[in-house]
Amino acid sequence: MGRRLGQHWLADRAVAERIVESLALRADESVVEIGGGRGALTEHLATRGRRRVVIELDDDCADGLTRRFGEAIEVQRGDVLGVRLAELGPGPWAIVGNLPYYATSPILLWLCAQSALISRAVVMMQAEVAERVLAPPASRERGRLSVALQYRFRGRRVLQVAPGSFAPPPAVNSTVIELVARPEPAVVVADEKRFFAVVEAGFRHRRKTLSTALSSTVGERAVVDAALAAAEVDPKRRAETLTMAEWAAVAEGLTL
């Protein structure tokens, strides 16, 4: 079932150990592993932290994890996107996992939605997606996902993982990143819903100027241009060039 769900099993023990060591789980913290699979990471988690919860969608894998680790872990069957950390316990929760290719972006946005209860996450994904997550302003890779994650977390690369570390090997390289939850968002905004709606609108037509992209979605061009002028942002700029503070200033001047 793993291949059908876009999963390539981590088979390199040294890489698995490095990932868990990077998580730096404290004795008073609890951990959620996203997709335990064949237990490559679970093996190194089974004696760490206060609680160890593994969210596993594949019934065969869930059965195997239960047989192998017994009461050392709590296996919850289902899709992590349906899990609410508040229902598992108060946290703080550390998150770890080898994210399936087909669901990487939704899971990263799930982390954003749950960030109030998360201390940090160490997760592996396609190198291309990691580049987007960590992309700074003015980078070609920067997009809505970059802004969403960087608004809630500080990110860094932990290590690159070659295809040969998996069974079967994928056709792409992978990257492990660490996301440390910010005590406060990266920028103060009056209305988060409006802020993210403006960001999404700006990136929806990313090859167009901000004036054109935003006026096609969030308001008339005169209103958009006035908001850009008030924020001291050139209307001919494109979405990937804006800093977080500039997005906040632009959103402040728009009413959705």
Give the CATH H-level superfamily of the largest domain: Vaccinia Virus protein VP39
> How many structural domains in the coordinates?
2
Looking across the biggest beta sheet, what order are the strands in? 4-3-2-5-6-9-7
Helix coverage percent of residues?
25-40%
- Say how many strands there are: 9
CATH class of the largest domain: Alpha Beta
| Silhouette | elongated
The poorly predicted ranges are: none
- Mean residue pLDDT: 95
Instruction: Give the biggest sheet.
Output: 7 strands, mixed
Residues in β-strands, percent: 15-25%
CATH architecture of the largest domain: 3-Layer(aba) Sandwich
* CATH fold-level assignment of the largest domain: Rossmann fold
Number of helices: 11
Radius of gyration from CA coordinates: 20 Å
Category from helices, strands and their pairing: alpha/beta
Order of helical and strand elements: EHEHEHEHEHEHHEEEHHHH
Determine the N-to-C terminus distance: 44 Å
Lay out the secondary structure.
Elements: E1 9-10, H1 13-23, E2 30-34, H2 42-45, E3 51-56, H3 59-69, E4 74-77, H4 85-88, E5 93-98, H5 104-113, E6 118-126, H6 127-134, H7 144-152, E7 153-161, E8 166-167, E9 174-181, H8 192-204, H9 210-215, H10 221-230, H11 244-252
Parallel strand pairs: 2-3, 2-5, 3-4, 5-6
Antiparallel strand pairs: 1-8, 6-9, 7-9
Helix pairs in contact: 5-7, 8-11
Keywords:
256 residues; alpha/beta; Rossmann fold; Helicase, Ruva Protein, domain 3; 2 domains; 7-stranded mixed beta sheet; two-stranded antiparallel ribbon; 11 helices; 20% strand
